[in-house]
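queue> holo job accepted (2AL)
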Amino acid sequence: MDISAVNALSYEDFVNTFGNVVEKCPVITAAVWSRRPFVSLNALEAAISDFIDELPESGKEGILRCHPDLAGRDLQRGTLTRESRQEQAGAGMDALTSGETERMARLNEVYKKRFGFPFVICARMNDKANILRQLSESCQNERAVERARGIEEVKKICRLRLQSLLLTDGANKL
Ligand SMILES: NC(=O)NC1=NC(=O)NC1=O
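queue> job finished
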């Protein structure tokens, strides 16, 4: 699908197509629809990024809270979104040893207890060793640092999801 096809989408088709580029936050997609026409993929991505940046801290933390834990309950139960399942599997989150699973669960809980939102990282740009190391180090950070780092990871996840939607000629082609 090229950018002119994106601009020609009805509101419903736009949200059906792009509603999960930020995990479980279709409101972001619904909001940026009014900023069309987009001159490029980068412009659509920038509109999403700008919308996120304009949110108050509570809104940014809300976005982070919409993300499933890495190697967490949703993965175990099979209730991840298609995108998250693919991303987490790609980073080996579905092939951890029992010790690694336990360490991820413990660190995720420590992190959430400290910050009030989950640890978020772009799984497609990391492997399990990096993820475990970053999670462990992030538990020592300040809240503002982790909010900003998490939101930057959300933007990386969003960019890769947009690219997958726009650059494939597969089923997504309208
Ligand atoms: N807590 C998370 O970072 N979750 C995720 N990162 C991804 O790239 N996909 C996810 O589900």
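queue> The chain has ten helices and no strands.
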